[in-house]
């Protein structure tokens, strides 16, 4: 069984998948973004899906290429599994247009029906990253909207929009643990 998380401290909450406490527990909110094919991607896209999300930008020469490589490992592992999707948010949506994302996806071997590279309003993306996925670990340090969002974290979200894990997207051991945790989630029963 995997824990549930509800804030940036990532303190594990050990609840059963259908516990009453989960009714008011932190969930990823409704969102609407656009992917590399110009298609709208919303929280409904991930309904009854397990997904892994991260935040990147196509012109990044630092951590992003390694993160993309590790997302490709996940894509390969779950390429024939309709229950598992991947979601990468551009943190430079003003530069990462649909066409730029499409070129990046094509160059990296992204399967368009498995892995959504999304753009949208910068404020929406940063709000999701900081306030709902909690991808930045600078606890106690308040970030302004104009502060750049840059993190190596991958976040695992279950079929009910609950965060179930955070992983270092640069670390092979962490990625292996993420894969194992996805299989654990797949075996959970939701009623």
From TrEMBL:
Residue ranges the record marks as coiled coil: none
Highest taxon listed in the record's lineage: Bacteria
First and last residue of the signal peptide: none
Membrane-crossing segments per the record: none
SUPFAM superfamilies xrefs: Thioredoxin-like
Similarity field: Belongs to the SCO1/2 family.
Protein name: SCO family protein
């Amino acid at each position: 069984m995997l824990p549930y998380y509800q804030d940036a401290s990532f303190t594990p909450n050990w609840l059963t998948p259908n516990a009453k406490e989960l009714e008011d527990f932190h969930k990823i909110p409704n969102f609407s973004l656009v992917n590399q094919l110009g298609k709208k991607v919303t929280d409904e896209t991930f309904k009854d899906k397990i997904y892994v999300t991260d935040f990147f930008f196509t012109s990044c020469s630092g951590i992003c290429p390694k993160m993309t490589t590790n997302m490709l490992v996940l894509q390969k592992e779950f390429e024939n599994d309709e229950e598992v999707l991947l979601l990468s948010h551009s943190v430079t949506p003003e530069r990462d247009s649909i066409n730029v994302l499409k070129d990046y996806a094509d160059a990296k071997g992204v399967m368009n029906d498995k892995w959504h590279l999304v753009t949208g309003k910068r404020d929406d993306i940063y709000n999701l990253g900081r306030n709902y996925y909690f991808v930045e670990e600078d606890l106690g340090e308040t970030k302004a909207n104009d502060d750049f969002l840059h993190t190596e974290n991958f976040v695992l979200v279950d079929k009910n929009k609950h965060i179930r894990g955070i992983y270092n997207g640069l670390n092979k051991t962490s990625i292996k643990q993420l894969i194992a945790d996805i299989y654990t989630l797949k075996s959970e029963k939701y009623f």
